[in-house]
Amino acid sequence: MKISFLGHATILVETNGHSILIDPFITGNEKATGKVDIETLKPNYILLTHAHQDHVLDVEAIATQSGATIVSNFEIAMYYQAKGFTVHPMNHGGSWNFDFGKVKYTQAIHTSSFPDGTYGGQPGGFIIYADSRTIYVAGDTALTLDMKLIPKWGKLDLAILPIGDNFTMGVADAVIASDYIKCNKVLGYHYDTFGYIEIDKAVAKAKFDSAGKTLHLLEIGGSMEV
Ligand code: NI
Ligand code: MN
């Protein structure tokens, strides 16, 4: 399984023959300019954790050019279905077997409204089981005791956690989250995109190191194998 960081909270998961794009926010991210070209993105699926602009901005353009199925909570799925897109609605605690593997929609503590004010359901995250790997994409969330349930649903090979603070948990809480989910291999996201969420990357890595964990931070456009 190949995991690429396309800036902010945008992740591309490439499995054996399938590509899954999560929370596309590229054209609005100055830091991704010249590093990610959305016209090259042809995912089979687009997974959305919640409806905020910094997670859905490029959904319609990419779904149009790729024909991707949009997977999210019921309200977000219906929003895009009404616009003519192919969708698969889920909700918290539910799993579904797709052709690439299984997805479970997990709890997150955050909010979820579309830029136009439409209700975007309750925010979530995903556990993705594919290629004999299990990864957890937390979405925008606070540290929550619900994370203690995650290990009951599988042994994680990688956790993708927000670390930017202010709108989500910050680094210190992400270290605690990695205890709750029993995964010491973390890819940080949702940091540095704008002023409210700037972090000191060296300090963040040191905090994980001193807890016996590894924080991976990828350059925009960079990738890792899991
Ligand atoms: Ni958000
Ligand atoms: Mn966000």
Name the bound molecules: nickel (II) ion, manganese (II) ion
* Helix-strand category: alpha/beta
C-alpha termini separation: 5 Å
What's the number of structural domains?
1
Strand percentage lies at: 25-35%
Tell me the name of the CATH class. Answer: Alpha Beta
Overall 3D form = globular
Mean pLDDT comes to 98
Give the strand tally: 14
Q: Which strand order spans the largest sheet, edge to edge or round the barrel? A: 6-5-4-3-2-1-14
Helix content: 10-25%
The name CATH uses for the topology is: Metallo-beta-lactamase, Chain A
> CATH homologous superfamily name?
Ribonuclease Z/Hydroxyacylglutathione hydrolase-like
SSE order: EEEEHHEHEEEEEEHEHEE
Q: Quick one: biggest sheet?
A: 7 strands, mixed
Write a short abstract of this structure:
With 226 residues, the chain is α/β, with parallel strands linked by helices. The protein has five helices and 14 strands.
Map the helices and strands.
Blueprint: E1 2-5, E2 11-15, E3 18-22, E4 45-47, H1 53-56, H2 59-66, E5 69-73, H3 74-81, E6 87-90, E7 95-97, E8 102-107, E9 124-130, E10 133-137, E11 158-162, H4 171-180, E12 185-189, H5 201-210, E13 214-216, E14 223-225
Bound molecules: nickel (II) ion (NI) and manganese (II) ion (MN).
